[in-house]
Amino acid sequence: MGRTKKDRRIQMAPHFSGFKPQGVQCKTGDDVCINFEEYEAINLCDYELLTQAEAAKLMNVSRPTFTRIYESVRRKIAKAFLEGSSINFEGGNVAFADWYKCTRCKVTFTLPVNTDKLCPFCKTQVISENN
Amino acid sequence: MIFAIAANGNNLSALVNQNFGRCEWFCLFDTKTHKNLFIENPANQNPEKAGCDAVEILLGKNVGIAIAGRFGSKVADMFRRNNIQMVIPEIQQTVSEITNQIK
After folding, report:
1. Using alpha carbons only, what angle is made at residue B69 by residues A114 and B34, rounded to the nearest 5 degrees?
2. Is the Cβ pair A107, B87 closer than 8 Å?
């Protein structure tokens, strides 16, 4: 049996579930599935323009592992572009960084360590974990 | 507790900026005195590390909570290390709407 994968830390999951090609009448080929760690790799490397070493540190994996994740997502995106398949975001071995939500104030927030779970605006305790 | 709100302009009707590092103004709101103080963000034109420089300025002002539409990963990491709370409003709000919620 192979070794189990370590959880990769990601800041936030994408707030939509994928992409569809335009002007395709009937489906050709399979959907491409990009998992959350790959989404975060593209976000860190190509959107926030970090180096791979910095991004690997943020995701709590080694630099070579990060490069592998990044390479795999680039190939998947290329495949989806060229074959006109849709992209779904799902799955992966991920641990979400702690973000919380208050439904009354409609805010998402982090909590400082060693404090009660309170909404910073309305001070109520009804907050849910966001992921 | 001092709140730092990333704002588009230096008045109370300005909207909360969607990006923490590149916002033009920060509104510092003190919950004890209920006073607003607008400071310019000198880092907003930096080619890189705009967010990190902005964090350092806010650390010097003893800010406890930062509010913006989005925090980059470097900024989020710095805030977590310095034990400062980050808040992301889900709807577009003006600075005065936020400060009214805090009061």
Report:
1. 65
2. yes
In angstroms, the CA A46 to CA A43 distance is 6
Q: How many domains does chain B have?
A: 1
Give residue B59's domain range.
Answer: 2-40+49-102
Tokens at A61, concatenated = 């994996």
Check: CATH 1.10.10 for A1-13+30-97? yes
User: What is the distance in angstroms between the Cα of B7 and the nearest Cα belonging to chain A?
Assistant: 17
Strands B65-67 and B85-89: parallel
pLDDT tens digit at each of 131 positions of chain A: 788 888 888 887 888 888 988 887 777 678 899 999 999 999 999 988 889 998 998 888 999 999 999 999 999 999 999 988 999 998 888 887 777 887 777 778 887 777 777 777 777 765 666 65
Would the CB atoms of B101 and A106 count as touching at under 8 Å? no
CATH number for the domain spanning B84: value is 3.30.420.130
The interface pTM score, or ipTM, of the predicted complex is 0.72
Going from N- to C-terminal start, the domains of chain A cover 1-13+30-97, 98-131
Is B85 close to A113, i.e. CB distance below 8 A?
no
